[in-house]
Amino acid sequence: MTDRMDGSVAIVTGGGTGIGAATVRMLAARGVRCVINYASSREDAEALAGETGGIAVQADVGDDAACRELAAKAVAAFGRIDFLVNNAGKTKFANHEDLEALSADDFLDIYRLNTVGAFQMIRACAPAMREGPHSAVVNIASVAGISGHGSSVAYAASKGALVTMTQSLARVLAPAIRINAVAPAYVGTGWFEKRLGAAGFAALNERIAAGVPMALATMADDIAVHIVHLLDPASRSLVGEVVRVDAGAHLDIGQSRRPGREI
Asked: Of 126, 170, 185, 205, most Cβ neighbours within 10 A?
C-alpha cells in the first residue's frame, strides 16, 4: 500500500451502507475525499459524509442523466475524479428451479442497476478520470456471476455480465483507467441484521462460517480491504482481474449448492 492516494477523489455508489460505507471509511483513512452516492439511505449517507469529510449525493445510477450529473457534482466539489467504486446493486430472491419466479421486468430491473448502471457510471466519469495520473475503477461483482448460484438467476446473470464488462472495458480504457472487480460471496451486513434480528443474524453467520474452509463469515470490511487494494496505484499491474473473496467456499465442492452461500 502507498500514500499516493492522499488527496484523491472517489465516487462510491451505494456508499451509505454495507460494503460501500466500509470502503468510504477506509478510503477516507488514506486521505481520499469521497462522494457518497445513495438512492434511499439519505440519513446514513449524510452521517457518513460528516464522519469522513466527504459529500453525500442522491442519484439513481440506473438513469444515465443522473450518472452524468453525479460525475459533474464530484468535479464541481473536488475538481477531479480519480476512483470509482460501482457498488450499487439489487436482487430479487427466487428459487432457481422455479422458472416462473422471475419475469422479464425482474431481469430488466436488476440489470438496469447491477450492469447498466455500472457501465453508465464508468462512461460518465471517464472524461475526468482520463486526466488523472492513476485512475481506477472497481466493480462489485459476485461469485454468483462466476458460478451461476446466488439469490436468483437474474442476479447471477447480471453479475456475470458485470464480470465480462469489467474485462471488456479494462481492455479499451487502459492504460488511462484501470478496471478490476471484486466478487464476494456472502457478506454479513446490516441488510441481513435488519431482516433477521440480532440473534438470527448471529445464527446465520455461524452457519456460513461452519460451511467454508476459513471458518468465518465475511464482513463488509473484508471486502473493502480488497477494493482499496485494487484502487491503490501500487496495484498498477492489476487490470481486468476479478478477485473472488469467499473465505474459500469455492474449494468445498460438496457444499457448493448450500443455500445462502453466494448472495
From this structure: 185
